[in-house]
Task: structure prediction
Amino acid sequence: MRALMKKVTSARIELHYRETIDDALEFIRAGNAVNMVLMDNRLQPQADFRETVPAMRQQGFIGPIGVISSSVADPYFQKFEEYGADFRIDKSELDPTAIEFILREYVTKE
Amino acid sequence: MATLLKNHRRYDIGNDLEKALNRVDFFRIFHTMSLRFGFDHFGILQLGNENDACMLSNRLTLHDLPSGLAEEYDKRHRFGDSLVYKSLHASSISSVWKADDPHLGNGSNLLAQLGFDLLLCVPVSGINGARYAVLFLGDSDDIERQEHFELCYDAIAAFDYFYRLVLSNKAGLGLTPRETEILRWISHGKTASEIALIVSVSEHTINSHTATILKKLDVVNRTQMVAKAIREQIIQ
Result:
């Protein structure tokens, strides 16, 4: 992911990588400024976005959240908006062009 | 979006399109489509009156061009002067353009100005007749007949879904339960960020829902929105 972000030339991206949902929640709670959350659908221990995104929202995070998965076409993904996520993207689709588009849609417009 | 009959859903077009929910989903569909046919980028262009002054950046409703490319183009060139733009108003047949076409000189060569070698334009229209074009840009030498036909079909189908779900004017349509909930909070004087906290979504989502409510109620601001909603007894 870090290598991918380096290829995006139109924006300066500071990536904070957190391995578990608890670490991510702690990072938000600590008051760090975060423009966007990109969340792997499967985080330890066995959670998927239906648990992790609401947990993030309960911490008061109102920025954009995107869910990354290799199975975005699975039926349960059709309800991602109801769980508070803004968008979904397949791991294989995540290239510099996609990152630039997402930043334009959710960060630079605001 | 289960409004189409099986007659419309030939081949495998329905698989991803039926599941698309927002602009990012359509970005994914069009971006993947352009790569699949050997192009690097796509752009969906809104066509208007040919004689209106127009800028490329303003006419692109969805695209994956490098950030700032269209804006840089607009600083140096007039999109309305390009042959591509003029031809989109002259015919609705799909067209293929190459940067080294000899007749594209005199400052009207959109491809060379954008820095690509090949452009495929697929004119499309919404169900109400609103005209658009799906552009595919890349550095290939040419596109074969079969691929050209397939890409046209895929682009027309994807645009149809994109138009109905995202672009169409939804005036007069009913509000969804989530939109009604947001409208109610707006009527209580809550800001977008406050509503985002209350309903556990992003501020971006709230703004997006608010824009849809404005369209559906055919109003121009939040004050008029609440006044009309009370008048129409959508909220008490």
In short: The longest strand of chain A covers residues 65-69. The domain at 2-7+20-26+34-108 of chain A is CATH 3.40.50.2300 (Rossmann fold).
